[in-house]
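Researcher: We plan to redesign the surface later, but first we want a full-length starting point. Tokens attached.
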């Protein structure tokens, strides 16, 4: 048996052997800097219903779902825009030619993944107005393909899907989105956050299913498993929660343990249990065990404490 102590610090220190993936500081271990080791693609609903207010009525100026999402997204992402790779796919596709159909999704992203891309994402809100249906499945597939093209075991990758309704395009619209979300999480280790914007009650079951399949559901004690933005204030709050989790509760592990190794994760002197349901505890968030994440109250405690330590008992034969 070989005992390895891997200290995962949430603050910069030359002594650390693993660092948080928020890129807030460049910390070297084994001569390799970890800075901005995250990619996040936002899949954003631009269907016609996004032009309504949160009650489903014609909005007053600045009170449509579309306008409020722009403001809320900008506020949530401002804090770490320069430190991580961010990209976006809007659906359905619109261009200046205005020849697209209500369910069209063109290949590629509208905003390519990279640091400092939040202004480019926000510009999209003023370029085109909400229009058409909800081809969320094909749009999420484009986001997944873009992330896979940049896949690296030392990078954490995520999709944040924001929609105000169920899929409406294609012969099997529901099957398409369920399939791509499940593939992202289960096959590629790319978790999917599901954010519902004033989503009607009949669609909550599908959004809950997607949230669980995507690997980033809300705790089971919450009314819904997806991030349920029922009003404008809650939309900004939930986006900020997602941004906080991505920035402060995901850590790199420089020496991935083997399948039989024993791993103990501590915040301060408190042992954090592994929780594969991802409600309150830690879990691996990469297929190769190169990253771990804290969830629920464990994430909150880590933010307050400022550090996380992992003790790994390596089983040698």
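Model: Full-length starting sequence:
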């Amino acid at each position: 048996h070989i005992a390895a102590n891997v200290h995962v610090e949430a603050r910069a220190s030359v002594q650390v052997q693993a660092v948080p993936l928020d890129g807030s500081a460049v910390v070297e271990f084994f001569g390799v800097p970890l800075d901005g080791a995250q990619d996040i693609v936002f899949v954003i609903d631009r269907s016609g219903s996004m032009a309504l207010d949160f009650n489903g009525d014609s909005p007053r100026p600045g009170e449509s779902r579309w306008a409020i999402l722009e403001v809320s997204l900008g506020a949530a992402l401002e804090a770490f825009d320069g430190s991580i790779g961010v990209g976006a796919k809007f659906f359905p596709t619109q261009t200046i030619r205005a020849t697209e159909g209500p369910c069209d999704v063109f290949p590629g992203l509208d905003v390519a993944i990279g640091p400092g891309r939040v202004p480019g994402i926000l510009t999209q809100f003023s370029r085109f107005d909400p229009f058409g249906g909800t081809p969320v499945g094909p749009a999420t597939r484009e986001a997944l393909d873009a992330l896979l093209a940049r896949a690296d075991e030392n990078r954490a990758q995520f999709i944040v899907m924001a929609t105000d309704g169920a899929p409406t395009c294609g012969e099997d619209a529901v099957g398409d989105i369920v399939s791509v979300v499940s593939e992202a999480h289960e096959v590629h280790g790319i978790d999917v956050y599901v954010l519902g914007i004033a989503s009607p009650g009949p669609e909550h079951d599908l959004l809950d299913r997607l949230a669980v399949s995507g690997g980033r559901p809300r705790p089971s004690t919450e009314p819904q498993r997806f991030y349920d933005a029922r009003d404008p204030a809650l939309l900004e709050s939930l986006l900020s929660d997602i941004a906080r989790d991505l920035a402060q509760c995901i850590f790199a592990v420089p020496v991935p343990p083997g399948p039989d190794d024993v791993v103990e994760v501590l915040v301060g002197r408190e042992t954090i249990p592994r929780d594969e349901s991802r409600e309150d505890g830690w879990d691996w968030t990469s297929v190769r065990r190169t990253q771990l994440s804290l969830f629920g109250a464990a994430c909150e405690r880590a933010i307050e404490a400022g550090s996380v330590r992992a003790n790994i008992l390596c089983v040698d034969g």
